[in-house]
Write a structure and sequence with these properties.
The complex is a heterotrimer of chains A (226), B (226) and C (225). Chain A is an all-alpha fold and 226 residues long. Helix content of chain A is 81%, strand content 0%. Chain A has helices at residues 2-22, 24-43, 51-74, 83-89, 94-124, 132-157, 163-190, 199-224. With 226 residues, chain B is an alpha/beta fold. Chain B is 35% helix and 27% strand. Chain B contains seven helices and nine strands; from the N terminus they run βββαββαααβαβαββα. Chain C starts with a helix and ends in a 10-residue tail after the last helix. In chain C, helix 2 (42-69) packs across helix 6. Chain C has one domain (3-27, 39-214). Chain C is globular. Residues 172-180 and 217-225 of chain C have low confidence and may be disordered. Classes of the chains: A mainly alpha (226), B alpha/beta (226), C mainly alpha (225). The A-C interface holds A 149, 152-153, 156-157, 159-162, 166, 169-170, 172-174, 176-177, 180-181, 184, 200-201, 204, 207-208, 211-212, 215-216, 219, 222-223 and C 67, 119, 122-123, 125-126, 129-130, 133-134, 139, 142-143, 145-147, 149-151, 153-154, 157-158, 160-161, 164-165, 168.
Chain lengths: 226, 226, 225
Amino acid sequence: MGEVLRHAWVIARKDLVLEFRSRTAFVSAAVFTALVLTVFNFGRDPTAVATVDLAPSILWVTFTFAAMLALNRAFQLELENEALDGLLVAPISRTSLYWAKLIANCVFVGVVECVGLPLFVLFFDVPVGGVLAPLIGVIALATVGFVAVGTLFSAMVIRTRFAELMLPVLLLPFLIPPLIGAVQVTARLLGGRPLSEVTGWLRLLAAYDIVFLTLATLLFPTTVNE
Amino acid sequence: MLCAEDLRHSFGPVRALDGISFTLGEGQTLALFGPNGAGKTTLLKVLAGLIRPEGGRAEVTGGRRAVGWIGHQSYLYGHLTVRENLLFWAALYDVARPLSRARAAELLGRLGVADRADVPVRVLSRGLMQRVTIARALMHDPEVLLLDEPFTGLDLAAAAEFRALLAELAGKGRIVVLATHNVDEGVELATDVAFQARGRFVQLAPRGARGPGEIADAYRRAVTGG
Amino acid sequence: MTLAQRGRWLTLVGLVLLAGIYVRALAFTPTERFQGLAQKIFYVHVPAAWSAMLAMGLVGLASILFLIMKDYRFDRFAAASAEVGTAFSLVMLTTGPLWAKPIWGTWWTWDARLTLTLFLFFLFIGYLLLRGAVSEAPLRARYSAVLGICGLVLLPFIHLSVYLFRTLHPMPIVLKPSAPSLPGSMLVTLLYSFGVFTLLYVGFVMQCYALAGASDVGGAGASDA
C-alpha cells in the first residue's frame, strides 16, 4: 500500500512539475474560468432574478468546464514520446498510475478553483463569509467525484478517435449526481440555511465519491493492460 | 534467466508471433535480425510485459524490475531536464536517491552527455536524445536488457561507447536481446544469433566464430529462402 | 430456427400484443378520475422506462461477466442490449413530450421517470459512441465493459439524486399513480404492459445479437442458434 502511494506521488509530482513548467494548460483553464464568469455576468438581468438564485449554478458550470480542461490533459502528457509504455513496463502497479493521475488532476483543478472562487465572490457579490469552510468542503467533495470518474475515462479516450470530444460525452451522465448535490448545497449555504438541511446531499456526495473511487481503482488496470 | 515458450500473438489477421520459443541464461546476448514486419518489436514487447501474448508464455526472472527496455520511442518528458528524467525513471524502479544521482552522472559521462544534464530534453537532437534514452534504460542496473534498434540515431563515437557498455554488462552476467536491421551493429557482441521472419525464428544458433559478413550471408539465405 | 428468426417471431408477437395494450388501455380500462385521458400514457411510459432500465442493468451485468470470463459473447450481448435500450429510451423521450404538450401545455416536465430516462439515454449514447470510436475488438470490448459497469453503478445515484431533488421541490403535475394502490383492472393493464415490453426487449435483443454475430470476424456466428 505504501509503495503504491509512493509511486503514485512520484508520478503525480512529475505531472505537476510538467504542468506548471509548461503553464499552458493551467493558464488556459484559469483564463477560461474568468471568461465564463464574466460572460455570465453580462448575461443576467439583475432586476429580474436575484444573483443569489443563479450564483450556485454559475459557479458549478464554471468549475465543471475547468475540470474538463484538466482531465483532457491528464493522459495527453504521456502521449509525448509514448511515455505511457514506459510507465507500463516499470514495476509499478496500475493502481499507482490511476492514483497518480487522480492526485495530479485534483491539485490542478483545485488550483483553478482557488482562482475561480475569489473571482466568483468578487463578480457576483455573494455572502461567503460565514460559510467558507463548508463551502470549500462541498467543492472538495464534488471535485473528487468528477475527477475520480473523469480520470478513469480519460485513460480510455486517449486511444479513441475524437478523444477530446468523447470525454465530455461519456462523462456527462456521471457528473449529474455530484453536480445536483453540489449546486443544492451551495445554494443552501449561500442562502444562509443551516447545515442540517443539507446532510442528505452531503451524504450522497460522500457516498458517490467513495463508491466511484473504489470502482475506478478496480477498473483502471483493465483500461491500460493489453 | 529469460524464457519464451511457444509465443503466439496476432493483430487482427496479421500473425506477429507464430510459435517462438527460446531460453537465455546469464551472460548470453541474442542478436535478432529480421525484415520489417517480422515481429521483432512484438516479441520484445511481449518479453518486456507490454503485451500479453494470445498463446504461450514469456518469463523473465525477477519480473519487470529486472528489465531494461529501449523501444522505438524515448519515453522522455520534453519539459523535464535530462537529469530529472533519469531520476524520475530510477525512482519508479525504487533506486535510492543518492545512488540514482551517482549512476546518472556516471552514465551521462560515459555516453558523452554530461554537459547537457540540466538541459530540457525537448531541445536535444535525435542522437543526443537516444543517448539519454540508453542511460534511462540502464539507471536501475537491470539484469535483462531488451533493446529494439537501440543504435538508431547514434553517431560512430556514441555507438562504439554503447557497444563497449553492452560488452561490459554481458561480462557481468547480464542478458541482452538486441533487435536490429544492421548486421554490423551488434553481431560482434552476440553469443547467439536468430533470424526472425513472419513471426517465426527461421534460424537460431550460437554465433560461433562467424563475423558480420558470414552472418549477413546466412541471413539472406535463411530469410529469402535461397 | 436461428436466433435471428426466433427473435423476429418474438418481436412480432410483442408488437401485436402492444397493439392489444393500446386497445385495452383506451377502450377497456376505466379512465382515472382526476387526470383523465392523459393518465393512459402511464401504461406505455412506465414499462418503457422499465425496459430501458432493464437494458442498462443487463449491459452492466454482461460487462461484469465479460471481464471475469473473457467471453466475447457477453460483449456482444451488452452491445445488443445497449442498442435496444437506446431505442426504448428514445421512444419514451419522444412520446413523452408529444403527450405532454397538448395535455399540460409544456414540452418537458422534470418528471422523475422522464429525467431518469434522459440520463439513461445519454449513457447509452455514450456507450454506443465509445464502441464506434474504437476499432480493435478486444480494446473495444474492455472499454465498453468498464463503461457498462460504471453506468450500472451510476443508476442508483441518479435515481437518488432525482428523488432527493423532487422531495424538496415538489413538481406541479406529475403522473402520480404508483403500483400498489391501483384498482384491479388498471393494475392488470399495467402488468400486462410490463410483460409485453419485456417480451419486446428480448425479441429485439435476440435479433441484434444475432446480427452482431453474423458480422463479427471470428465470432461464434450462426452456431449459437
